[in-house]
Amino acid sequence: MATKKTDDAFSLAAFDPTKVTETFRDFAEKGAAQSKEAYVKVKTAAEDATKTVEATLESAQSGTVELGLKAIEALRTNAENSLSHLESLLGVKSVSEFFELQTAFLRKQAELAVEQAKSMQEATRKVAENVAKPGKDAAEKVISGFKKN
Predict the structure, then answer these.
(1) What are the DSSP calls for 72-120, one per residue?
(2) b vs e for 29-56, b when ≥16 Cβ sit within 10 Å of the residue's Cβ?
(3) DSSP 1
(4) 104 Cα distance to chain centroid
(5) CA-CA distance, 9 to 44, in Å (whole number)?
(6) Which of 4, 57, 98, 149 lies 20 to 30 Å from 21, alpha-carbon distance?
(7) pLDDT of 18-65, one tens digit each?
(8) DSSP letters of 13-78?
(9) Taking a C-beta distance cutoff of 8 angstroms, is the pair 136, 59 a contact?
């Protein structure tokens, strides 16, 4: 009797090719649908990443230009102050007047250097925030996507 059941299970008469074809078709259709979904997700993620990189690079470029312009302005101001000081020194009548002019110039330059450093620091902070913003926004979007799932 045990032999009979084994023969029935593996016999060609028990084999229905239509069921195998339907099962294989269902499996293939599910695989194709999952592949399409995965492709759409990967494509969307790649597009989002590209947009993030582009925004980051644009922010970095504009920030670099802004910082460069601030540096040029600081150099121009310092050069003008130095030339003005040299003109003042040409009219010096005594050593005490020389030291007085020199001391005032150095004090003014020190104060100006502090102001310029603060201005550059603030501009650099803003540029860093602007450069980091697209990446931060993208990360928050991804994290919120994980929280929904």
Answers:
(1) HHHHHHHHHHHHHHHHHHHT--SHHHHHHHHHHHHHHHHHHHHHHHHHH
(2) eeeeeeeeeeeeeeeeeeeeeeebeebb
(3) -
(4) 45
(5) 48
(6) 4
(7) 677 788 888 888 988 899 988 888 888 888 889 988 988 898 999 999
(8) GG--HHHHHHHHHHHHHHHHHHHHHHHHHHHHHHHHHHHHHHHHHHHHHHHHHHHHHHHHHHHHHH
(9) no
Q: What is the pTM of this model?
A: 0.64
> How many CA atoms lie within 13 Å of 108's alpha carbon, on the beta-carbon side?
13
Among 83, 60, 77, residue whose Cα is nearest residue 116: 77
Handedness of CA 52, 58, 62, 65 (dihedral sign): positive
> Please, are residues 120 and 70 in contact by the beta-carbon 8 Å criterion?
yes
